[in-house]
Amino acid sequence: METMTRVSAVRSPVAASRYGPIDPPCDGYVSGQIGRLSLMSGCYSFFEAWTLAAEEIARAGRYPEAIARLDAGATVRSLLAEWFGVSSESAPGNTAFYETRAVRRTLRNARARVRE
Predict the structure, then answer these.
(1) Quick one: pLDDT band at residue 44, thresholds 50, 70, 90?
(2) For residues 4 and 72, what is the distance between their CA atoms, to the nearest angstrom?
(3) pLDDT tens digits for 50-78?
(4) Rounded CA gap, 115 and 52, in Å?
(5) Which of 21-25, 38-42, 81-85 has the lowest mean pLDDT?
(6) What is the 3-state secondary structure (H, E, C) of 51-104?
(7) What is the domain partition of the chain in residue ranges?
């Protein structure tokens, strides 16, 4: 008897993430344009959007400007909306704090890769 595996066409943001598990958990999929990539061309989570944006920010040499904006109190979501047209729902509760901390780490890593 042949065993078949059923595969669902709908995946969670965690399962769909090319960059690993989302920590902290983020909202669903987002839209916008980062560099030449239209986020509408696939299913991207907010985590993936900020990771792609961090790489673009580092390539463009805008790292100091991004950090200055975050230090001045801009949220990650407002910064990505302004610079890349990334739209997503507001972060619930104190999630914005964790997003900012994670984006700073992602920006540092992206800048280090660009310098290599």
Answers:
(1) confident
(2) 55
(3) 889 999 999 999 999 999 999 998 888 88
(4) 17
(5) 21-25
(6) HHHHHHHHHCCCHHHHHHHHHCCCCHHHHHHHHHCCECCCCCCCHHHHHHHHHH
(7) 14-115
The C-alpha atoms of residue 25 and residue 95 are separated, in whole angstroms, by: 9
Amino acid making up residue 74: A
For residue 13, cis peptide bond before it (omega within 30 degrees of 0): no
What is the chain's mean pLDDT, rounded?
Answer: 75
Q: How far apart are CA 48 and CA 16, in angstroms?
A: 10
- C-alpha distances in Å from residue 60, one per residue of 99, 104, 109: 22, 16, 15
Which residues have C-beta within 8 Å of that of residue 30, sequence separation ≥ 6? 39, 44, 45, 46, 49, 86, 87, 88
